[in-house]
Amino acid sequence: MTKELTVDVVVAGCGGAGVEAANIAASNGLKTLAIEKLSQIGGNTKISSGFFAIDTKEQREAGLHLSTEEAIRQLNVYNHYLNNGPLTRRIVENAKPTLEEIENLGMAIKLNPTANTTQFAHRDNPYEGGSYHTYVNKPESWANVQKSVEKKGVEFMVNTTMQGLLQEEDGTVTGLTGKTANGEDLIVHAKAVIVTTGGFGGDVARVAKLMHTNRMRSLGVPSMGEGMTALEKAGGVNIDSHALIHASQLAKSKVAQNSSKEHLAGFSDNPLTRILLTPLMWIDPTGRRFTDEATIYDTVLWANAAYNIGGMYYILVDTDTLKAYTANKELSHFEVSKAGPGATDKAGDFIELAEKAVEGQVAFKGDTLEALAKKAGFEYPVLKEEVARYNANIAAGKDTEYAKPDQYMVYPIKKGPFYAIKAQVAYLGTVGGVRVDDHLRVLNEDFTPIKGLYTGGANAGGYYEGQSYPTYEGLASGFSWTSGHLAGLAAVEDLKTR
Ligand SMILES: Cc1cc2nc3c(=O)[nH]c(=O)nc-3n(C[C@H](O)[C@H](O)[C@H](O)COP(=O)(O)OP(=O)(O)OC[C@H]3O[C@@H](n4cnc5c(N)ncnc54)[C@H](O)[C@@H]3O)c2cc1C
Question: Domains (ranges, CATH) in the chain?
Answer without folding.
Answer: 2-241+432-496 (3.50.50.60), 245-427 (3.90.700.10)
